[in-house]
Every structure is written in C-alpha cells, then in structure tokens.
UniProtKB/TrEMBL annotation, chains A, B:
SUPFAM superfamilies from the UniProt entry: Homeodomain-like, Tetracyclin repressor-like, C-terminal domain
Name under which the protein is recorded: TetR family transcriptional regulator
InterPro entries, per database record: Homeodomain-like_sf, HTH_TetR, Tet_transcr_reg_TetR-rel_C_sf, TetR_C
Gene3D superfamilies (UniProt xref): Tetracycline Repressor, domain 2 (1.10.357.10)
Domain of life of the source: Bacteria
Domain Tetracyclin repressor-like C-terminal: 96-186
UniProt keyword list: DNA-binding, Transcription, Transcription regulation
Transmembrane segments: none
Domain (HTH tetR-type) ranges: 14-61
GO MF annotation terms: DNA binding
Length: 193, 193
C-alpha cells in the first residue's frame, strides 16, 4: 500500500502509541480498541493502515522495537574500529538491557504473535543486521592489524549474537546482567587474543 | 509430603506420562483430564500427588525436563578433562538440540507456567548446575596446564551458558544450529588460546 506523507505519519503515530502502551502492559491483554483509544484513531483508520488487524499491527510494533534495538547501540555498533569503540559498544548494550530489566518488549510481542512467517522475518532481519555490524567491526579490526587474521569474523560475530541473546534471556529469568556481561567480555577478550 | 516407594513410583509415572504428552502437543491446550486419561490415573490420585493442580504438575514436568537436559550431556559434561572430552561434549550438545529442532519442551512449559518463583527456581537450578560443571572442567584443564591460568573460569563458564542459551533460542526461530555451534566453537577456541 502506497501511503501519502500524511498517511505515513498517521500510521507511524499509531505504531508508536501502540508500542508505548504495549511496553507498559502485558500484550496478551491489549485489544485493538485500547490502541484506538490511546492513539485517538477510529476503527476505520486502524483497519485502513492494518487491514489484517491486531496481528499486523503487533508485527509493525515488533519491527519498530527491533529497529530500536539497533538504534540504541548507535553510533557505537556502526563504528567498531578501535578497542575503546568496542568497550563503548559493550557498555551501551549492557546499559540498555540493564535498564530494560526483566521485561522485554520484543520478546513479549513475539510470544503473542507466535512463530508466523512475519514474526520470524522480524527476528531474522534484526539478527542479520546486528550480526553484519559485528562482523564488519571484526573485519575492520583485522584490516587495521588489531585482531589476528586467523579469527573467523563471521563465526565470532554469530557467537556474539548467541551470547547476547542468551544473556538477555537469562536476565529475564535471573534479573541480573551477569551472563550478558560474561559473554561480551569473554568474546572481546577472545578478539584481543 | 513423604511418599512411600510405591507412591514415588506412581508420581514418577504421572510426571513421565505428562512429559511425553507435553512433548507431542502444545502445552497451552493440555488439561489435567488429558493427563489423567493418558496416565490412567484418577482425579483423586492427581490431586494427591499435585495438590495445587496443573501448575504444580507442569512444574514437576519442567524439573524432569531440566534434569534430562543435563543427563543428555553425560558422561561428557561431568569429565571435561581433555580437549577430546570438550569436543565430545560440544558434539553431544549440538546433536541434542539439532534433534530437538524448533521445539523446546522446557521453553514451552516455561511460557505456560510463567515467571512464578517455582519456574524461576527450576531454570536457576538448571543454569547453576550446568555452569558449575563447565567451570569445574575449565579449572581442571587449568590444573593440568592445558588452559592458561589467566582465564577466568567462572566468567568463561557463564559465557558458555549464555552462548548455548542464545544458540538454542535462535535455533527455535531460524531452525539452524549455526549460532549454537559458533558460540561453542568460539569459546572452546578461546580456552585453547
């Protein structure tokens, strides 16, 4: 659907309003009527922008939250070109998830949407972009002679993604960022050699 | 509740029957009546062994599944005393989760039980025992002079747990064990130095 600039703004207002509400409440209990009321839109407007209803809107919110995951790590994630840059990135990831604590907006949405192709695509895109940034950072460190050439950049980037994902998952259970920090610090140590 | 040997056997039969059924079906739709029918027990028996009903039974099944997670890694996990032992353990973890694929009995149960103190305790106990085995393995490798003394055994064990947890989580989304393998191989490389 091609939207006008005004249409895009309205759609974005609905997504951001829904995201804020879903962050403060259990997504399982949130209805389209709640979102309509909060964002001051009519039923007709909601279905104009999200013809498939709640699932489509929730997916749009998940995509918005996924973009925020990456935005929150910038500008560090996009310029992993020195050891201080890696440390700043590491700190920004830990700070972001420490602030988020046990709640995880994207995780809560995902367990609502279920494993539909759309939900899988949101997660795959996020993971792919995140991993590509880290892989590029490792390659740039290698080009600068700061990381030994023998390190497999792609495999190590995948290990970072697994460690972060698991650290965040364990934070949701334990309330502690300890595993997240251990994963990041151990893998950065590995790069330092 | 102190159970006789016969009582313990009956309770175990209910837990194992419920576990088999919950592995083949979505836990959300399973009722106590289903479990009663499958295990050939009466309502009275179920409530004798699980006075708090479904949640208590599901927690007992989660504990049983958590024990299996560790059992499936034995004898390797308990004797990480040489590089071939680490590789055999790594292969057993990957094979276990490759066979399990996108389904995760423990994860599915956990999303049913929610973040109750009982559920948190099951996960914490599993994570704690798993991590302790890996930490001991690293310490033994250090004592044998196979891993450098500068490696922080506790922190590295926590990184393994985060990487495995995240790798399994990503397997549930992507259907691939790639992230799990990347995490295990990178961290073992780190130990090898």
């Amino acid at each position: 659907m091609a939207l006008t600039a005004k249409g895009r703004a309205t759609r974005q207002r609905i997504v951001e309003g829904a995201a804020a509400h879903l962050r403060s409440d259990d997504p399982a209990g949130v209805t389209l009527d709640d979102i309509r009321a909060i964002t001051g839109t009519s039923k007709g407007q909601i279905f104009h922008y999200f013809p498939d209803g709640k699932e489509e809107l929730f997916l749009a919110v998940a995509r918005y939250e996924a973009d925020r995951v990456l935005d929150d790590q910038q500008p560090h994630l996009g310029a992993l070109t020195s050891w201080p840059a890696w440390e700043r990135w590491r700190d920004s990831v830990v700070a972001r998830y420490r602030a988020q604590g046990r709640s995880c907006p994207l995780g809560a949405l995902m367990s609502q949407v279920g494993s539909t192709p759309g939900a899988t695509e949101v997660v795959s895109t996020l993971v792919g972009q995140w991993e590509a940034h880290i892989r590029l950072g490792i390659a740039e460190m290698q080009a600068a002679g700061l990381v030994r050439a023998g390190v497999d950049a792609g495999r190590t980037a995948a290990a970072f993604i697994a460690g972060i994902q698991g650290g965040v998952q364990l934070l949701r259970t334990t309330g502690s960022v300890g595993h997240l920090e251990a994963a990041l610090d151990t893998l950065i140590d590995h790069l330092r050699g």
